[in-house]
Amino acid sequence: MASIRKRGNRWQVIVRRRGYPDQTQTFTKKPQAEQWARKIESEMDAGVWEDTSEAEETTLGEALERYRREVTPGKKSRVQESYRIGKLLGHKITERPLGKVRGMDVADYRDERLQEVGPDTVRLDLALLSNLYEVARKEWSIAGIANPVANIRMPRPSKGRDWRLQPGEEERILRAAAQAECPWIKPFIQLALETAMRRGELLRLRWDLVNLTTRAAHLPETKNGEARSVPLSTRALAVLQALPRSLDGRVIPLSDNAARLAWKRCIKRANREARNKGIPEIEDLRFHDLRHEATSRFFERTELGLMEIASVTGHKDLRMLKRYTHLRASDLAQKLG
User: Fold this and answer.
1) What is the pLDDT of residues 222-233, one digit of tens each?
2) Which residue of 68, 145, 193, 225 has the lowest C-beta tally within 10 Å?
């Protein structure tokens, strides 16, 4: 029989059963305490009771910290995910107990976040939260939780960026890169434009994976999970041959954060030149857009077929590759005659 007593202006209920840990809860009204006690006792009688204390005592923020320590380090995108978790930890939703985060709470977070960033970023945030709950439930055996992300509407994916470098912009970016304090940013940009390699792939590339004789760079670890070898153009080969060898064996010995900062400074410098000359600035240019530009250039070379380009870029889904085929109408007109 449950023990219910008044403590101040609240009602405390304690359920004691042999073979089960004592269960204690407090309520503002006595009928609530009685109802909770009956529920716990009936679950214990039926043998379906689960200890939900961990879900009630662990905040979402504490669970995210554990996830970052135990799960994130094993991922390829560990740097980006750690940053994403850091942003999440700054939101009030992470103060709630893990078992008391409702779909409504996640929906509020979604709507607030959409005021700051694009839908793709929010989708990644929600995917992270969803996976956290699955890990907590299945691997950490935390009882009494349900995945609140499953109960909300995901933002629609944004449309693929229809973006290309405009005449003169590449030259201006490379001039700015040549003036940078970081000596690696210019070859970093040049290799991205020549190989269509992702930023992370370039930053992980090691000299022992580059064969200057056969003109190929081997990537054992890629986003889609499959290794691939990237052919090196004459220009890419020249860039690599001119590079000094770093002691750590990497071709571009920059951290992810250093590469981001160097890229941002480079674009700012290029835009200062544009303002001085009274020409349009480069707007909303991301480093990943260089992969888009490089892949589009591959399509502009008529001697390369779709499957050949896919083998270079690493796209497994040819439908995704179509996002990168925004060829200039003027160039197509030249080919049509």
Assistant:
1) 776 678 889 999
2) 225
Residue 211 β-bridge partners: 216
What CA–CA distance (Å, rounded) separates 141 from 227? 35
- Both 61 and 89 in one domain: the answer is yes
Q: Which residues contact residue 297 at a Cβ distance below 8 angstroms, ignoring those fewer than 6 apart?
A: 193
User: Six-digit token pair at 337?
Assistant: 């005659």
Within-domain flag for 162: no
79 plus 126 within the same structural domain: yes
Establish if 205 belongs to a structural domain: yes
Task: Determine the pLDDT at residue 337.
Answer: 54
332 plus 295 within the same structural domain? yes
Say if residues 138 and 269 touch (Cβ distance below 8 Å). no
Q: Please name the residues in contact with 143: beta carbons below 8 A apart, sequence gap of 6 or more.
A: 50, 51, 52, 54, 55
Based on the fold, state whether residues 199 and 106 are members of the same structural domain: no
Confirm whether 158 is domain-assigned: no
pLDDT tens-digit map of 95-126? 999 988 999 999 999 999 998 888 888 999 99
Contact 296, 327 (CB under 8 A): yes
Examine the domain organization and report whether 143 and 176 are in the same domain. Answer: no
* 147 and 258 fall within a common domain: no
Query: Residues with catalytic annotation?
Result: 198, 223, 288, 291, 315, 324
Examine the domain organization and report whether 327 and 311 are in the same domain. Answer: yes
pLDDT tens, 129-180?
999 999 998 998 887 788 999 989 999 877 666 678 888 899 999 999 999 8
Q: Which residues pair with 27 in a beta bridge?
A: 11
Confidence of residue 9 (pLDDT cuts 50, 70, 90): confident
Task: Tell me how far apart the alpha carbons of residues 330 and 127 are, in angstroms, rounded to a whole number.
Answer: 41
Structural domain for 27, as ranges: 3-49
Query: pLDDT band for position 16 (50/70/90)?
Result: confident
CA pseudo-torsion sign 66, 69, 75, 77: positive
Q: Has residue 159 been placed in a domain?
A: no
What's the predicted TM-score (pTM) here?
0.62
